[in-house]
Amino acid sequence: MKPVSEAELAEIVTSAKGSFEIIGGGTRQIGRTEGDPLHTSGLSGISLYEPEALTLVAQAGTPLAEIETLLAENGQRLPFEPYDLRALQGTTGTPTIGGVVATNASGPRRIQAGACRDSLIGVRFVDGLGRIIKNGGRVMKNVTGYDLVKLLAGSHGTLGVLTEVSFKLLPASEATASVLVQEDEATSAATMAKAMASPYDISGAAHTDGTTALRLEGLEGSVRYRSHVLANLLAGEVAAFDWVAQRDVQAFAGLKGDVWRISVKPSDGPALAEALRRLGAETINFDWAGGLIWANAPEGQDLRKALGTISGHATVIRNTFKKHRSFHPEGAAIEILSSGLRNQFDPRGILNPERL
Questions:
Q1: In CATH terms, are 6-171 and 175-247 the same topology?
Q2: Beta-bridge partners for 21
Q3: How many Å apart are CA 347 and CA 127, to the nearest integer?
Q4: CB distance 68 to 77 below 8 Å
Q5: 301 dihedral zone (left: phi>0; alpha: psi -120 to 50; beta)
Q6: Average model confidence (pLDDT) for the chain?
Q7: Which residues of the chain have pLDDT under 50?
Q8: Helical axes 269-278 vs 185-197, angle rounded to 10°
Q9: Other beta carbons within 10 Å of 7
């Protein structure tokens, strides 16, 4: 099924006799689900773009590339740098803006600009009863009641089928520079913490293959000055670094085994990396100043065991034989809240059942 209007989508959901697998571009398939395919790519098009107001409204099935091209032509961008995991996951298709929101897809710039949900200011969606619901608008403001905008971001289609999303934008940077420090994982967390605590406005902090990379963006003169001062401070050098490859975890794309995405407190990164290696993880990549760890492990190995007493959560992004539940098990209190929300918005359990 591929509805071409919000009203048609609502009718399909209202009259449903079974469950649906919600598919945007089919490029961000994480977790198991079942049901008839329900494609949102027919809901495509930019509803409103006001460059002077830094505001964009688009239908959920709009290709991400179309949006990014339009913004680039006007010297603007989505602040949160959405990643593209097609190479890593071996998927094909066209990433859509609805898929970005549904998975809260956020790249290295999250440490500076926030996640996708922090730039999202409005949503329209069809819930599991076929009701058309709107929340938020075209400006950022505090409101009473449920903040459904934040709730839908990262819900993976389990609470509603997105039909339209609204964003606050940022101007694109005039210049970018990277400071590279050659060191091991054990010292990288301290280096990234020192850089983040500095006044030099870091927009990316990662460690991969013996290199800690720190990104600075902004006006050309400012970037030139800040990067050289930071390089001297950290005994590093100003050099090129592929932030697109870092964002999309391209180094893992050709490796065998499962790929895990683990979120922890940045200072816990090195200790967790050691525990991951003891479980067989051979390739490890830090992002978000050490708060996000990508790990490649043997097929079927449960890397959640490495967390131990470390507070965090682990998601299987590429699960070769589907031996593990993709998303981290919820605690008892969170499970109660999650179940209550699902009962409110999808009491029939027909939207991406079992995904989370």
A1: no
A2: 37
A3: 10
A4: yes
A5: beta
A6: 92
A7: 142, 144
A8: 160
A9: 12
**Fold designation for 6-171:** 3.30.465
Q: Report the amino acid identity of residue 151.
A: L
User: Strand pairing partners for 294?
Assistant: 261, 285
Take residue 31 and report the two structure tokens written for it: 């977790």
Q: What is the pLDDT of residues 92-146, one digit of tens each?
A: 889 999 999 999 999 999 999 999 999 999 999 999 999 999 998 765 554 545 6
Predicted local distance difference test score (pLDDT) of residue 13: 96
Give the model's pLDDT for residue 146. 62
In this structure, the strands spanning 161-168 and 120-126 are antiparallel
Q: What is the pLDDT of residue 138?
A: 65
Give how far the C-alpha of residue 33 lies from the chain's centroid of Cα atoms, to the nearest Å: 20
Write the pLDDT tens digit of every residue in 100-112.
Answer: 999 999 999 999 9
Q: Which fold has domain 175-247?
A: Alpha-Beta Plaits (3.30.70)
Question: pLDDT value at position 278?
Answer: 94
Fill in the DSSP letter of residue 33.
-
**CA distance linking residue 31 with residue 33, whole number of Å:** 7
SS3 3: coil
**Which residues lie closer than 8 Å to 225 by C-beta, 6 or more apart?**
none
Whole-number Å distance between alpha carbons of 82 and 22: 20
Q: Could you write out the DSSP letters of every residue in 193-258?
A: HHHHHSSS-EEEEEEETTEEEEEEEESHHHHHHHHHHHHHHHT-EE----HHHHHTTGGGTT--SE
**Domain-wise residue ranges, the chain:** 6-171, 175-247
- The token duo for 146 is 């449920």
Query: Cα 19 from chain centroid?
Result: 26
The answer to whether 158 and 344 are in contact (CB under 8 A) is no
Amino acid of residue 276: L
